[in-house]
């Protein structure tokens, strides 16, 4: 299921393919509705109705690009949708629009750069997509400004239990939620598959107003810097050390009691777990926490290398341990 989800294209504002697949998986196991922005709000009946309402959240969208114009020579100008470092875009193959037109992101060849350009990361307005057109008129037969473009990237397994794919942020969270919906739950639970997280947590703001949950768990991928030459806290989190429980990021200060409960639950059940040793980034918790009457929030994330690129990497053992931790948390979080 994770492979299928990651290979689907669905950047912010264009999540239809992802949404349709998710609905095909959950429709026989829960009640659901689609809100005006395109998020899916599902309700799974459990064995009991709790005194506190709980929602689990993940976002459907991925980072990508949008076509902004076409040059006289048939090259495409484009802008990022979400936070992408232009350095990960050079020479990447992309798929454009509903027809899946293939193109290559390019810049001037290195031997044509001026000296002051060689050590600089080019801005997106200096990059172009080459679809093999020879003129504006030819390119306009296939591509229109406003079309989305996506990294073309295979899903593959690496080494001893590593997984490489695009859109692991946050199709891995979507997969975990689908599996929970298909399982037998002890308590009634809401599930929010949110749109447009990568451009400002927009979908989560709407779904959290609709659900008004007392407690919200946000499932995410988060940046790991466990690379050669990076030491100590600068590694942020480490693949293979288990799910990541955050205490604070750029958008959220997480509920202290839930943070403590997550670690206690992990220790009690011999689940490896770690925290994020940098106050950086953000996720849907930033919107959920402050919408409506407010909600107590907990983020459970998978450490991921090379996030927001065509080749993010996670470890299967972290995924499995996150599943176990979620199941154990859902037994105690209602107390």
Give a written overview of the molecule.
- This protein is of the alpha+beta class and 335 residues long.
- The protein contains 8 helices and 17 strands.
- The strands form 3 sheets. The chain has an 8-stranded mixed beta sheet with strand order 1-2-12-3-13-16-14-15, sandwiched between helices.
- Strand 14, helix 6 and strand 15 form a beta-alpha-beta unit.
- Helix 6 packs across helix 8 (316-332).
- The chain is globular.
- The model has no long low-confidence stretch (mean pLDDT 94).
Features:
335 residues, alpha+beta, eight-stranded mixed sheet, 17 strands, globular
Number of helices: 8
Name the quaternary structure.
single chain
The strands making up the biggest β-sheet line up spatially as: 1-2-12-3-13-16-14-15
From the spread of the alpha carbons, the general shape counts as: globular
Q: Structural class per helix/strand content?
A: alpha+beta
Q: Which blocks of ≥5 consecutive residues have pLDDT under 50?
A: none
Overall pLDDT level: 94
Largest sheet: 8 strands, mixed
Q: Over the alpha carbons, how many angstroms does the gyration radius reach?
A: 21 Å
Beta-strand content estimate: 25-35%
State the end-to-end distance.
32 Å
Element pattern in H and E: HHEEEEEEEEHEEEHEHEEHEHEEH
| DSSP strand count | 17
The helix content, as a percent range, equals 10-25%
Give a short summary of the structure.
The chain is built from eight helices and 17 strands. The protein has 335 residues and is of the alpha+beta class. Strand 10 and strand 11 form a beta hairpin.
